[in-house]
Amino acid sequence: MKENEALMKILVNAEEGARTIFLTGSGTAAMEAAVINVFDKDDKLLVVNGGSFGQRFCEICDTYNIPYDDIKLEYSESLTQEKLLKYDGGRYTGFLVNMHETSSGVLYDMKMIGDFCKKNNLILIVDAISSFIADELDMYGIGADIVLTGSQKALAVPPGISIIVINGEMVKRIYQKPVVCYYLNLKSALKNGERGQTPFTPAVGILIQINARLNQVRNVGIDTERNKIKALADDFRSRIKKYPFKVVTDRLSNAVTPVSPMNPDISAYSIFTILKEQYNIIVCPSGGELADKVFRVGHIGALSISDNDLLFQAFDDLKNRQLI
User: For residue range 222-244, what is the model confidence (pLDDT) as tens digits?
Assistant: First the structure.
C-alpha cells in the first residue's frame, strides 16, 4: 500500500506532501468522497456539466445540499475560455470537472481550467478516471488539489478500487472538516494510510494487481504507455473516416472514440448488439437518449492494432450486408 501510494504520486506528478487514498468502491465513491470531505453548505462550487458524469457531480452536490452553479454544455461541446469568463470573479470556492467526459468523449483543456482556478483561488477537483495514463496529466502543473481515478480504465485491472490523490493543503482542510459519512470518511482513510492500512476491509486482490500494474507503468514509462494508447486511437480514427460514421467531437481523449452512424435510420445500439452477438466484438454503447445515436470504441487495456483490424473487418462485412 505504501508503494502504491508513492507510485501514484509519481505518475500524476503530485507535490511532495501529497497523499494517496485507495477506496474500495467504484469511481463514483471517489467523486462523492472528494466532494463531501472538502466542501459543505457554506461553499459554492462550479461544476462542468457536459454529460452524465458531470451531471453526477451535480447530483452529489444536491444530495448533500452543497450550493453550486453548473456550466451546462451540450452533448460533445467543449468548454471554452469564453464560457469560463462568465464566471470569472464569482464568489466560488471550488471547481469540479471530469477531465474526460466519458459519456461524450470530450477531453477538457485542463491548463485553461487550472489557470482559471488559480486566478480565482478555487479548489480544483479533477475526475481523471478515464484519463489517467491515457492522457497527459500533470497534477502539480495544472494546480489540481485532488485527482481521482479508478482501477478499471487504463490501469486495466478489475473494477472495485477508486484512487484519490490529495495535495498537502487539502489534507489539512479534510482534517478540519466535520465527518458527514461513515464509510467515505477521508480523515480515517488518511490516518490509516500512515501505516499502510485502510479503515475497512479493502479489495486486497485488486490492490495487489494495482501494485503490479503501477510498477509496470513506472518501469516502461508512463509516456510509453500513453503513446501506445494514442497509437491505437490514431489508427482507429484515421481508418474510420472511410466508413459511414462520424466522430462526434474533435476534442478527444486517447482513451475512447465516440462514433455516430451518418444514416439516421441506423441505430448505434443495434450496431453494438450485432458486433457483440455476431462477431464477438464488444464496443461500448451509450445510454438514455444517446443509445441509438452514439457508440464508443475504447483504446485502453490489452488491445493492439490487430484488434482494430478485426473491428474494421466486421465493419466491412456490415457494409456489404447494408447494415451500416
Answer: 999 999 999 999 999 999 999 99
First to last CA, the chain: 48
| Contact criterion met (CB below 8 Å) for 164 and 126 | no
The pTM of this model reads: 0.95
Q: How many domains does the chain have?
A: 2
Sequence letter at residue 270:
S
Give CA angle at 129 (186, 99), nearest 5°: 105
Provide the 3-class DSSP secondary structure of residue 322: coil
- Output the domain CATH number for residue 211: 3.40.640.10
Helices 2-11, 204-220: inter-axial angle, 10-degree rounding = 40
Query: Can you say how many angstroms the Cα of residue 59 is from the centroid of all Cα atoms in its chain?
Result: 17
> What are the respective helix, strand and coil percentages of the chain, to the nearest 5?
40, 20, 40
| Containing structural domain, residue 230 | 222-320
Helix axes 186-193, 168-176, angle to 10 degrees: 120
Number of residues assigned to the chain: 324
Average pLDDT of the residues of the chain: 97
Q: Rounded CA gap, 29 and 180, in Å?
A: 14
Which of the listed residues 177, 193, 220 is the one where a domain comes to its end? 220
Q: What are the pLDDT digits (tens) for 13-69?
A: 999 999 999 999 999 999 999 999 999 999 999 999 999 999 999 999 999 999 999
pLDDT at 45: 98
Spatial separation of the C-alpha atoms in residues 181 and 177, rounded to whole Å? 12
Q: Model confidence at 288, in pLDDT bands (50, 70, 90)?
A: confident
Which tens digit of pLDDT belongs to each residue from 115-167?
A: 999 999 999 999 999 999 999 999 999 999 999 999 999 999 999 999 999 99
Q: Using alpha carbons, list the distances in angstroms from residue 210 to 113, 139, 162, 205, 296.
A: 29, 20, 11, 9, 25
Q: For residues 202 and 249, state if they share a domain.
A: no
| Cross-strand bridge partners of residue 246 | 260
